[in-house]
Write a structure and sequence with these properties.
The structure is a homodimer of 323-residue chains. The first copy, chain A, has 323 residues and is of the alpha/beta class. Chain A has a domain of 200 residues: NAD(P)-binding Rossmann-like Domain (Rossmann fold, 3-Layer(aba) Sandwich), CATH 3.40.50.720. In chain A, the strands form three sheets. A seven-stranded parallel β-sheet of chain A has the order 3-2-1-4-5-6-10, with helices on both faces. Chains A and B meet through helix 5 of A and helix 5 of B.
Chain lengths: 323, 323
Amino acid sequence: MTKILILGGGGMIGQKLAHHLADNGWNGQPADVTLYDVDFRPNGAAGQQITGNLTDPGAAEALAANRPDIVFQLAAIVSGEAETNFDKGWQVNMFAGWTLLEALRAEHTASGGTYRPRIVFSSSIAVFGAPFPDQIDDEFLTAPLTSYGAQKAICELMLADFSRKGFVDGVSIRLPTICVRPGKPNAAASSFFSGIIREPLNDQEAILPVSDSVRHSHASPKSAVGFLIKAAGMDTEVLGGRLSLNMPGVSCTVAEQIEALREIAGQEAVDLIKPVQDPAIVAIVKNWPRTFDSARARALGFTSENSFKEIIQTYIDEDLGRS
Amino acid sequence: MTKILILGGGGMIGQKLAHHLADNGWNGQPADVTLYDVDFRPNGAAGQQITGNLTDPGAAEALAANRPDIVFQLAAIVSGEAETNFDKGWQVNMFAGWTLLEALRAEHTASGGTYRPRIVFSSSIAVFGAPFPDQIDDEFLTAPLTSYGAQKAICELMLADFSRKGFVDGVSIRLPTICVRPGKPNAAASSFFSGIIREPLNDQEAILPVSDSVRHSHASPKSAVGFLIKAAGMDTEVLGGRLSLNMPGVSCTVAEQIEALREIAGQEAVDLIKPVQDPAIVAIVKNWPRTFDSARARALGFTSENSFKEIIQTYIDEDLGRS
């Protein structure tokens, strides 16, 4: 049975991925799924749950000793928190990533070179920093303007070198902002992109902390799970050593997001959005990329929604009314 | 008196930089220069020499406690050794770089934010990996194909984030291959580029391990010292947060290098070059970049030689006949 380890398995994407694997298996067969995270909500387990912290001594080694075939590395301190808590961001987002790679390399060595797990690293478009060209392709430089972006870019470089050496078989997927996130707001600077849709659909007020002219790229949680599954099964040889892929998404302004909400849920939903500028959020978001050329990923079969209305509809179908 | 710390001060560039500072001072004034390295050749000291290893616990903190105004970070495991000794390369080239930044940040914090040293990080064109466009500018992605290149790219990202946060004031200069290096060959995969000029000029045979069609970019040790001095004194605000600069150099093929040698030293010098292909060197060098667009650095006043003949002449003037 294929052994799958989901780091950050207690998070929103990790949980959706685990439920997808529980429902569909891996390549049509049941999979042995382990979820690892600092905590789990008391929802239906879709795999073995292990509570722990990758920064604890021995934690990565214990997980690697099980020799998972596929490792989804989703664990991270989110962008807003990594910006305010410099030490914690670097320790978790960079050093724990290094420790994981080293633990897997030790198993590779111990196996005589036969063990070489697929690692799918969830990177981010935050690896890019302004100023931007009209379209950002996979050849654009990674000049991040947040600590979170720097940590993600560094993990991409580490993963590429460990993969080049043959210790692991990695691929980094740079996710656009995942929207609409179900549940509560989180400390990510991008949290409001979900909030302004989710809260009104749940009859609650939402704060819009930036101008509605802000343009950004989005994909649904469902698309994110699709990206992860696709990346886990793809032939990485075709990447020619450039293992970082800009994922597709819908590029739109906040005003266009709001218009899509109006079309689906009416003016009364839109009236629940209250503009209150937050300079800290404005400062982070203004340096984020807006539009991507994801031709490389699309050619490899990665797909997302085609409109923001589709993204809202996915939230309504998958998450609205569920806790 | 300006306090200057040269990490890797025992190396060839470190020594030339120290002698330049001893002869010229800093901004026309004598400077307080400290050299730090794992060992020093018994040549004339041009500053206080401290023997030690940045990877030793407490070493970086002890150096930072002196609060140098300028830190030249030249210390590194060279490309060839970083490729064969994976652990050592990462420990020295990445982790020691991190430890240094953390030690300087601690002094910044202890000073109440007033201490903010200029750091000049000697990066490398090895941050780039094939395939390449005709000209590589500062916006081209860093997709290194050696561990050395990955480590350099990561240190650039760390330095940029510590600088963005205001803990230090850094700039990374990506050096082309420095040629003609005086002295003995080293473990850098690029060592032969100097060897095929230096050894014949000293009446010795030299091995050429690659095809003479290989194109690469070069600057003299004298230019490298000029880059470092320029970077130490520049206004980093003009970089707009993109702190990595491709340094200028002379792009030429090995055949053109040899032709320049012939013009200066005659056919008998050229006859001392023996082609013996080395697959390991060929494999590394084929993934190195060939030609740069250094327009950004040139606009900021960074200059190098204009021909390979000039580079050879610099070696003859500065180093030939000296031990």
